[in-house]
UniProtKB/TrEMBL annotation:
Coiled-coil residue spans: none
HTH gntR-type domain residues: 17-84
Name of the protein this chain belongs to: GntR family transcriptional regulator
Keywords: DNA-binding, Transcription, Transcription regulation
Statement: the UniProt record of this protein carries the keyword Plastid: no
């Protein structure tokens, strides 16, 4: 593990194949939120102790992340978090905007209100995580919300493209937002977005999504 202070990882005690998936998801969230810092080397046993699981599912999850290019193996030491350039972050956000803004706006006219309402508890999770300053829970709920929303468009490939782009993004500024008490205001945009969708207000949906994605490169990604 890096000598720098360890990440605030959630306890994931238990066993079974599902824990590999849960650990991998939590690691991705930690990477995005900046809890695992670029250039730092982390060992599977040390991360396993923080998750409250054996080293095996953590090691397997790290192998998955290495295949995705999110970490690099360092022989006899662990895995180093890969850095993401400013230019690459700009490219990721640009592609996401091209996909997510029009797709989400179109849902104002097509999405089943019941399906939209089912996402409100997830939006509430985002707000609760923001209030608690739990960045990993925030990222996890945020991803479930947006991917669940995009899934209503009926294009599974589109959802996977956005999932990959989100995994490769970094939101280092989340820590500062949480410390300043400003993360909750951003979290509440998810509720604002749902209200606009349920009101069938396409223009308002587009405005909220544009503003929301603007945070990704405007403030949230600032190192």
């Amino acid at each position: 593990m890096s000598a720098v202070g360890g990440p605030a990882l959630p306890a994931l005690g238990g066993r079974g194949p599902s824990y590999r998936v849960r650990v991998a998801d939590a690691l991705r969230a930690a990477l995005i939120a900046g809890e695992l810092r670029p250039g730092e080397v982390y060992s599977a046993p040390a991360l396993a102790a923080r998750f409250g699981v054996s080293a095996t599912p953590v090691r397997e999850a790290l192998l998955d992340l290495a295949k995705e290019g999110l970490v690099d193996a360092v022989p006899n030491k662990g895995y180093r978090v890969t850095a993401v350039s400013e230019r690459r972050l700009d490219e990721f956000t640009h592609v996401r905007a091209l996909i997510e803004i029009p797709t989400t706006a179109a849902l104002a006219a097509t999405a089943d209100p019941t399906a939209l309402a089912a996402l409100r508890p997830v939006a509430d999770e985002i707000v609760a995580a923001a209030a608690a300053g739990d960045l990993i829970a925030y990222i996890d709920a945020d991803q479930r919300f947006h991917l669940g929303l995009l899934a209503l468009a009926g294009n599974a490939h589109l959802v996977e493209v956005v999932r990959d782009l989100r995994s490769r993004s970094r939101l280092y500024g989340l820590t500062a937002l949480a410390e300043q008490g400003r993360l909750r205001a951003s979290a509440e945009e998810h509720l604002e977005l749902l209200d606009a969708l349920l009101a069938r207000d396409t223009e308002a949906v587009g405005e909220v999504m544009s503003r929301h994605l603007g945070h990704v490169r405007g403030l949230w990604a600032a190192p």
